[in-house]
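Appendix B: complex inputs.
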Amino acid sequence: MARPSRFDVDQLLDAAVRLAAAGGPPAVTMSAVAQAVGAPSGSVYHRFPGRPALLAEVWLRTVESFQAGYMAVLDAESDPRRAARAAARHVVAWSRRHPAEATLLFYGAADFGRADWSEEHTRRADEGNERVFASLGALADALGATDARGRERIALALVDLPLTVIRRHLRAGTELPPYAEDLAEECAAALVG
Amino acid sequence: MARPSRFDVDQLLDAAVRLAAAGGPPAVTMSAVAQAVGAPSGSVYHRFPGRPALLAEVWLRTVESFQAGYMAVLDAESDPRRAARAAARHVVAWSRRHPAEATLLFYGAADFGRADWSEEHTRRADEGNERVFASLGALADALGATDARGRERIALALVDLPLTVIRRHLRAGTELPPYAEDLAEECAAALVG
DNA sequence: CATTAATTGGAGAGCAGTCTCCATTACCCG
DNA sequence: CGGGTAATGGAGACTGCTCTCCAATTAATG
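Resulting structure:
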């Protein structure tokens, strides 16, 4: 029906992810993305109404991809202790497979301009978080963690700590060692008790 | 000898810390700092040769203040297990006392424009890190952690994990609960073994 | 009181990035 | 083969930030 597109949304988002991983969210400028794929800036504005929308999509696509895999792992295992270990491993394995995307996770939605997002984008972000929060809460119950402190300890063990293992190496610029998955799993197990 | 200054370095850095905590490093513009203290932009350039130097000083003053207190705690206690617990507690206690500064720790030197820093600033950053790394290495030895993996686990327990406890709440916007110090200490103990 | 030196105060040049606008291009369909 | 449609390609207005420059101000000093 019309002229075929040379630049599709995912191609632009991929470039944006690379830029963000290399230089942080501020490096994701409309012109930089355009230049990265060899397009004029007008083409970027054809796909995204503005920079806030582009940043929101970069963030949401990354986080939702991470969360989808994470929750799949949580739900696949019925024994809570084994689910906990698998979850911790998964975080590291996912980051190993998606290094640029993992880098983005160490920023927050705020760094991607959440304040300027559309209501729709904000809602998507909140819903994703709530879903993970709910799954994690159910697992915490199964593990006998009843109060806020116990739940926090579970969240630390299954999400934050594995991510931190990655972060140490990204920060230092050293390569992720082969034992990273084991380390995350064994630390998670130690914290879950 | 001369006209007295209305705006001193620390006053400008304090404002910069507040801006960075609220809006991330990109929010620390020369004009924003000037406006925050009620000065014209020229006055900021009188104290700092440019934005890279300002960002470097903001980062280094914060990190060095954190590291000084941290190493004092590590050195004050000779029993390694007690030192470990005290260190974890200290990270949380320091962050509670310095919420804005703690927020900055979740960025990296790269986000504060390390690539544009002077050689002097880069050196200061590296030296601080090496000192902490050395102290932590000594403690790891005392705890019987010999290989890279064991050392990494110690670092996770004594630095990254306590910081992560803070980060969860800063991200979510919830207040730091009173049990945070205990939680960090008990998690660190569990990881140190 | 005049000199001197450090500092303020602010105007504005230059630049980078966002976003608008619209002519042009290329494909699909009847 | 020509009309309709979706996309490109790029020029340029506008905005906000960095940084320069220099006159005006203020206090200590001899």
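Residues 51-76 of chain B form the longest helix (26 residues).
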